[in-house]
């Protein structure tokens, strides 16, 4: 089951979600290999295209903080819902670029969980030729 420290961080971040339209809070927690936790939540906007998912919020923050993807141990996605909530397609594409393919992605609602890897969530992801 999800580490209690990560779950508590996720629940705290979800409480900060700005969700006046969907009422659907989501949190994402990156665990770094040194044990550091970074968290993010979803932020909605009346102009729906400007909404930002929790997963992208925390991943973009990790880039801003200079965290190399090799230092990320896992990504946990939490939503206080009856059934498990997996990342949307846009988040999966960002994860494919900003995380290692074998990075664990744990989806939980606090009662149950399911584990994936980045590559299992988005096989054959789009990448620009370099």
In short:
The chain is of the alpha+beta class. The protein is built from four helices and five strands, in the order H-E-E-H-E-H-E-E-H.
Topology:
Blueprint: H1 4-15, E1 27-32, E2 37-41, H2 54-64, E3 72-78, H3 89-98, E4 104-108, E5 113-117, H4 118-121
Largest sheet: 5 strands, mixed
Number of helices: 4
- Give the C-alpha Rg: 14 Å
Query: What is the H/E string?
Result: HEEHEHEEH
Please, what is the average pLDDT? 96
Distance between termini? 39 Å
Residue ranges: pLDDT <50 for 5 or more in a row?
A: none
Instruction: Report the helical percentage.
Output: 25-40%
Structural class call reads alpha+beta
Q: What portion of the residues fall into strands of 2 or more residues? A: 15-25%
Counted beta strands: 5
From the spread of the alpha carbons, the general shape counts as: globular
Give a written overview of the molecule.
Strand 4 (104-108) and strand 5 form a beta hairpin. This protein is 28% helix and 22% strand. The termini are far apart. The mean pLDDT is 96. The chain is globular. It is an alpha+beta fold and 130 residues long. It is built from four helices and five strands, in the order H-E-E-H-E-H-E-E-H. The longest helix has 12 residues, at 4-15. A five-stranded mixed beta sheet has the order 2-1-3-4-5, sandwiched between helices.
What attributes characterize this protein structure?
4 helices; 5 strands; globular; alpha+beta
